[in-house]
């Protein structure tokens, strides 16, 4: 090749490698990896694909109490784990805490513990093997919430769903499509080895193989006897209802550690909620002439059901109030998340106050909501900070403007964990999917993290052109008001992109998650730029239709976020709407290796050990800082941005999702969310 050609080619490759807002990095290379593909690519040949166990010795993990862990399991995160994997593992623990009685605690010298490391794939033993350090691998591409839940379910004592004794009643194994030598992966265990715990076969289990596991070419190796379950098996979104039933039965769970309350107002006792003081009442209704015409839980689909609580501002006089108070709740001290759906068909100056009543009866205002008369059900996340028993109180206050409706409340959930920071409400998603071409990317509004970083998420609703049939999702840093005060390249911020499953009970919400973490050392492919540098330096200028502009950095995410068939399952779409939940959290505390128990380093007494462990325990349990309400975001930013805070103002007092910071360098042309022509704007 002539030198001139080489120079031209080099020039091209350098040009192509320069970072722009259109650069996209697929964390999984555009492949919807299942555990078995990952392990096969890594050259592993384990029992049933991801079980590290001597087959002959221990085939009865489910039966037999000796394989049980205590319900609080000691863990150790080995230092070779990727930062994103560490963050995802801690998020998976939160799911166990919310939905089961299983909890996790940093290893403090207990005889047996689970040591999580980065091996060459995703694998675990089944049950507590009493080996001291029982290792569980979260390798490359295993850092997904459902995958981590799956491996820990093995560790807790579960085999794969399709190895149940009764599986031949539900699926056909296509033996001649299985790779030679891999047939052993499709064995079943008799009911002396593995108990189904009285739960029917579950195609939707997170422990079920996918249809093409261990296949030769592209033909399935597993065919479900009920055809419509072909695209259900192999889900890695999270625990199914049956997974939870089985786990809770195996461990005799009666309650979870962080779930507090869920109410969809279907029962006449309205979950023990009471009408407090106030000259008006909330009513349990199934439709209101001024709207809504149906509830949120069932969307009016179930005859004789479908209730919500309504305050009629149409029939109230200015200043009238109605109190709706939860029964006494006993959350864990610390952060709590109150999640609910609100429909406002009243007047713009009607106000819904959310308060907390403490054990002495004192009321504290947490948040006021007004305006937002959208004529649709809107999701709200409100962070509470309760230390003892408390009631959550909804106080509707009638304004002066004319009203033909009022406030309606449905699907209330309280859990002892922080809320997601931001909500992106996508309306009319079915229509958008019908009209959005393959390869078109749509961006969320820009949001601010508690640390002050500005970001947005871009999605391809109908997939990238190389991956039609999937929704693709990419996280982008964007220019913001605090950029001159922030660290660049952006260090160790974990972005969570979650598509909400809008089931009314938070324990049944199987949100589809992807996390990506900013590595400040990551370079562009040509090695000339820091990948996570300031977007105004390594991004592209974006000009909005109204002439405002900002800079968008490169995208990191996946072209296989969720398949369209899964998107249409469960309640990802409800009333033709979808909700994305976003958080951007600082996980730099996970850079420090998890401390070893004092006892392994010296023979100090237990008191000393406890003292030494308390700090790392706290750090490991709270790796992240999440803040959802605008006030808290502003408060968090206050620390980092004393210089700009004076010029900040919150444009939308009522919104917990969008904080607009104006008149500061770098963010001056921010457009207000409500003025955008896009159908994708958050409420
Ligand atoms: Zn497995």
Keywords for this entry:
single chain; 683 residues; alpha+beta; Collagenase (Catalytic Domain); Jelly Rolls; Apoptosis, Tumor Necrosis Factor Receptor Associated Protein 2, Chain A; 7-stranded mixed beta sheet; 29 strands; globular; disordered N terminus; binds zinc ion; hydrolase
What binds here, in terms of ligands, is: zinc ion
* Reported CATH architecture of the largest domain: 3-Layer(aba) Sandwich
CATH class of the largest domain: Alpha Beta
Q: CATH topology of the largest domain, anyone?
A: Collagenase (Catalytic Domain)
Which superfamily, in CATH terms, is the homologous superfamily of the largest domain?
Answer: Collagenase (Catalytic Domain)
Number of DSSP strand runs:
29
Nearest-integer average pLDDT: 85
Contiguous runs where pLDDT drops below 50 for at least 5 residues: 1-16, 56-61, 602-683
Overall shape: it is globular
Largest sheet: 7 strands, mixed
The percent of residues in helical segments reads: 10-25%
Structural class of the helix and strand makeup?
alpha+beta
Beta-strand share of residues: 15-25%
Q: Over the alpha carbons, how many angstroms does the gyration radius reach?
A: 26 Å
Terminal-residue CA separation = 58 Å
Overall number of domains? 3
Number of helices: 12
